[in-house]
Amino acid sequence: MEVRGLRKDYGASTVVAGVDLDIRQGEIFALLGPNGAGKTTTVEILEGHRRRTGGDVRVLGEDPGRAGGAWRARIGIVLQSASDSAELTVAESLRHFARYYPDPRDPEEVVRLVGLEEKRNARVQTLSGGQRRRLDVALGIIGRPELLFLDEPTTGFDPEVRRKFWTLIELLAAEGTTILLTTHYLDEAEALADRVAVLAGGRVVAEGTPATLGGRANAEATVRWTDARGAHERRTPRPTSLVNELSAGGGELGGLTVTRPSLEDTYLDLIGERR
Ligand SMILES: Nc1ncnc2c1ncn2[C@@H]1O[C@H](COP(=O)(O)OP(=O)(O)OP(=O)(O)O)[C@@H](O)[C@H]1O
Predict the structure, then answer these.
(1) What tens digit of pLDDT does each residue of 218-250 get?
(2) How many domains, in total, are found in the chain?
(3) Contact 29/196 with Cβ under 8 angstroms?
């Protein structure tokens, strides 16, 4: 997927202001950013659900603004709020949507993948919020997409289900599915994404692997330790030297920790919100 100079205006206000992205096949890419940053707008343009004001976009080799049904069958979409087929059961809706695709997954397999076996015969309207979201994910992957868009996929998931969902996403990526997800959970981005981009005010303010984003890997570290005089904390760009110095006498340093900024610290710095 290649995006160059993507722009979206609503009247006089520009909500996407020149975004460039390259997402490789089989990659898990996370789009981060505060509310209103332009994530959903960007993703909806890439899905062909919204017109752009400017820029070049190629998704699976085609312009989503012009692509037809064959292209659409190659992508899977999980929106923030899904359309409803509340009268059907879980298994029925999966069978129903499978018919739209040339090479769908087996609906029973998909029920298992998202952990809805016990609810396979339940009507959609009786599902809990988190179960409903799992069905959304199931519907997003039923067509065996080459590219899967996930807009805040795990909102409302309990911790165990979130972990299972991460495993599912990793499985799909291992099969070669390209995944673009938006999320407000930085632990999710850190666990899943090969690369992340931070969007703020309609611009990409940083891009990289979760480990190196915003110079994180080489950022100033905080060294903490405790001795007879109490607890100490020092920030330094060269923590190894400091620890060497402190332990020169050969003694153990009590409670020694060396920490770099977390992805969340880095993210908050990037969007200008760090306390
Ligand atoms: N149809 C529309 N008309 C006018 N403004 C819009 C429209 N859709 C979105 N916007 C504005 O565009 C900006 C970006 O919205 P968008 O939904 O892309 O943000 P987001 O990064 O996905 O936010 P969130 O994290 O809250 O989902 C917001 O200021 C929003 O109010």
Answers:
(1) 888 999 999 888 999 999 989 999 999 988 888
(2) 2
(3) yes
Atom 19, ligand 1: residue with shortest CA distance: 36
Q: Are strands 221-227 and 28-32 parallel, antiparallel or unpaired?
A: unpaired
Ligand 1 mutation pick, 7, 31, 41, max ligand atoms within 8 A of CB: 41
Nearest to 145 by CA among 214, 60, 238: 60
Task: Give buried/exposed letters for 235-273 (b at 16+ CB in 10 A, else e).
Answer: eeeebeebbeebeeeeeeeeeeeeebbebebbbbbbbee
Q: What percent of the chain has pLDDT over 90?
A: 72
| Distance between Cα 202 and ligand 1 center (Å) | 10
What is the C-alpha separation between 137 and 76, in angstroms, rounded? 9
Average pLDDT over residues 158-184: 92
Distance, CA 119 to ligand 1 centroid (Å)? Answer: 34
Rounded distance from Cα 201 to ligand 1 centre (Å): 10
In angstroms, the Cα distances linking 40 to 43, 202, 210, 244 are: 5, 11, 21, 48
Of 267, 167, 164, residue with least CA distance to 215: 267
Give the tokens for residue 174.
């291992």
Domain of residue 235: give its range: 220-259
The answer as to whether 271 is a domain residue is no
Residues 23 and 137 in one domain: yes
Interface confidence, given as ipTM, is: 0.96
